TrEMBL record, chain A:
CDD domains: TM_PBP1_LivH_like (cd06582)
Pfam families the UniProt entry points to: BPD_transp_2
Record's protein name: Branched-chain amino acid ABC transporter permease
Primary location recorded for the protein, binned into one broad class: membrane
Family: Belongs to the binding-protein-dependent transport system permease family. LivHM subfamily.
Membrane topology recorded in Swiss-Prot or TrEMBL: Multi-pass membrane protein
TM spans (from-to): 6-32, 44-62, 68-91, 103-127, 147-168, 197-216, 273-294
GO molecular-function term, one example from the UniProt record: transmembrane transporter activity
Cellular location(s): Cell membrane
GO biological process: amino acid transport
Domain of life the protein comes from: Bacteria
């Protein structure tokens, strides 16, 4: 492997990690607060991607620069409409019930959304690369790469990381979310509306998944099954990091993104194996994840 | 209730009778019922683990192990016999279950589920990417095996595999019932209700769970072998996480409180799929998703509990 390929692998890894981080951190946030593994998370990612592609294909003839707000708009629409619906009508009636039921109802949402996606957007691959083509290429150590992937995507990921940190640690709503996570009963007793907190958290998490999809849509063709692949991958990242760990998710996404990129150049057939193998190895040693806090076991 | 036949067991007997006789009248039911029975066997394993309060979101790995055992035998050795396939499929999955089980039984709840998922995704990526051995995503064809040296035409074969599945399903159903009623089965339930007390009684909860896990892997493998023989193919999708989700889905749909829930759920699932796919193309997944939501929200104990609730209502409800 020469240095050009190594730089290419690093850039691939970073841009991939940025997308995976956006999706995984949403999953992790939802689990951290609601204690629910949202199996429909990958479908929110796919819906975000498809809606973003629809929006940007529709708006590109007017002005190609409007495709960027279109990506953002698509992810918020999906986050609020689909995410809000799942939380309000599927998860909320089940609060306090067995975990497996909460997990399964999001699985049902996944099945429905997977089917709807095929009914709405068909099974033919969709391309909407306008946002990618608008921005010029940049040269990084002599390697030419699209600035969309190497500057915009990592930029959005970093902004999300610091934005979430600021939101959770420095704002009132963030403090309220943390309070509900820490002790739901006590925070309800002092007048916090826990249901609203769950709703807001779920919508934020869902919007992040959709944002990941929307930003991914210019870089790849949209195909059925992309949601099912993304949910396990983002779950692998979130679980390896430790569910509920925001900074840890960023580091793990970077680690998995880079490893995967190098494996693609060196041993392409093992590309899909990397995240899951890492997940098995990490969970065997640290079941609470690389960055997770040790939880007291029942025995 | 001792001495009397339990109502759920009566329904189970009726179900097994229908699956034996029904396909003789409607020939398209032969494959349908064979699939229901085979999947029911896998879901029995899920229900077993649900007794201990543990949800495996990776059980498709044992399903795929059973299926690929038959497929590899057909590809590399050639020929094959149903009995041999099932024995091999069961044994390899049980051994695989023992190896994976040694790791996963140390964890509970979300960690148990996560680790199972991780192992199954590793297996899936290997099946998908080791192209030279597994044909990748295309999967391996499983040629129609003989039964005890007798070979059959496709028309007879669908009945042969149906009755083989039925026989195994009845034995597995009875065996799982007996196991859950045995001291070992009660200890398995105790993991869900109070694991600490189980340990204080001097029992190793891990060992109890490991035994349950290996049995459940064994059932998964046998079910996988049967499905591979019925559908004459084994693909990596057999080991994908959506397959694992489908099994948990069927278990909750049928009801995890009783072993028959596995078959009730599988029957409902496969019938919806069979008829929706035939009449409302491309929406069977949507319909199943809606069915699942309705069941979870309005009958969280599954189909078999609906009957029990009805029975209780008649007695004045308590």
């Amino acid at each position: 492997m020469n240095s050009t390929l190594a730089i290419l692998a690093i850039l691939d890894g970073i841009s991939y990690a940025a997308l995976v981080f956006l999706v995984s951190v949403g999953l992790s946030l939802i689990f951290g607060v609601l204690r629910v593994v949202n199996v429909a998370h990958g479908s929110l990612y796919a819906f975000g991607a498809y809606l973003a592609a629809t929006f940007s294909l529709a708006i590109a003839p007017i002005s190609p620069w409007l495709t960027y707000p279109a990506l953002l708009a698509a992810s918020i629409v999906i986050g609020v409409v689909c995410g809000g619906f799942i939380e309000r009508f599927l998860l909320r009636p089940l609060s306090g019930q067995e975990d497996v039921l909460q997990l399964l109802i999001t699985f049902a949402a996944f099945m429905i959304m997977d089917n709807l996606q095929r009914l709405i957007w068909g099974v033919q691959p969709i391309f909407a690369a306008e946002p990618l083509r608008l921005l010029p290429n940049v040269a990084v150590f002599g390697v030419s790469y699209t600035s969309y992937q190497v500057i915009l995507l990592p930029g959005v990921a970093l902004a999300t990381l610091f934005g979430l940190r600021y939101f959770l640690r420095r704002t009132l709503l963030g403090a309220v979310i943390l309070a509900v996570t820490e002790d739901r009963e006590a925070s309800t007793a002092i007048g916090i509306d826990a249901k609203r907190v769950y709703f807001v958290t779920f919508v934020i998490g869902a919007s992040l998944a959709a944002l990941g999809g929307a930003l991914a849509s210019p870089t790849t063709s949209l195909v059925p099954g992309m949601g099912a692949d993304m949910i396990v991958l983002s779950f692998a990242v979130a679980a390896t990091a430790g569910l509920g760990q925001i900074e840890g998710t960023a580091l793990t996404a970077l680690m998995i993104g880079l490893t995967r990129a190098f494996v693609i150049y060196l041993q392409p057939e093992f590309e899909v194996l990397v995240p899951y193998l890492l997940m098995v190895l990490v969970l065997l040693v640290r079941p609470f994840g690389l960055f997770g806090a040790v939880q007291v076991r029942k025995i | 209730m001792s001495g009397r036949i339990k109502p759920v067991t009566t329904i189970a007997l009726i179900f097994f009778l229908v699956s034996a006789v029904g396909p003789l009248l409607v020939s398209s039911w032969a494959t349908l019922f064979a699939l229901i029975l085979a999947k029911g066997i896998v879901v029995l394993g899920i229900i077993l683990l649900l007794q201990a309060g543990q949800v495996s979101f990776g059980h498709a790995m044992f399903f795929a192990t059973g299926a690929y055992t038959a497929a590899f035998w057909g590809k590399y050795v050639g020929g094959g016999d149903i009995v041999l396939f099932i024995a091999l499929g069961g044994i390899t999955s049980a051994v695989f279950g023992l190896i994976v089980g040694l790791f996963v039984v140390r964890y509970r709840e979300i960690f148990f589920g996560m680790l199972n998922l991780a192992f199954s995704m590793v297996l899936w990526s290997l099946l998908e990417k080791m192209f030279h051995y597994t044909n990748g995503a295309d999967g391996i064809r499983v040629p129609r095996p003989a039964l005890l040296g007798l070979s059959f035409t496709p028309e007879t074969f669908q009945y042969v595999i149906l009755y083989v599945s039925l026989l195994i399903a009845v034995v597995a159903f009875y065996g799982v019932q007996r196991y859950l009623d045995s001291p070992l089965g009660h200890m398995l339930r105790a993991i869900k209700s109070n694991e600490t007390r189980l340990e204080y009684l001097g029992t190793s909860a891990r060992r109890v769970l490991l035994i349950g896990y290996v049995i459940s892997a064994f059932l998964g493998g046998i079910g996988g072998t049967l499905v591979a023989i019925i559908q004459q193919i084994a693909t990596p999708e057999f080991g994908f996480w959506t397959k694992s989700g489908e099994f948990v889905f069927i278990a909750i749909l049928g009801g995890s409180a009783h072993a028959f829930g596995a078959f009730a759920g599988a029957a409902m699932f496969e019938c919806v799929r069979f008829y929706a796919a035939a009449h409302l193309a491309d929406t069977w997944q949507l319909i199943l998703g809606v069915v699942l939501i309705v069941i979870i929200l309005y009958a969280p104990n599954g189909l078999i509990a609906l009957r029990q609730r009805y029975g209780q209502a008649k007695q004045g409800g308590h």
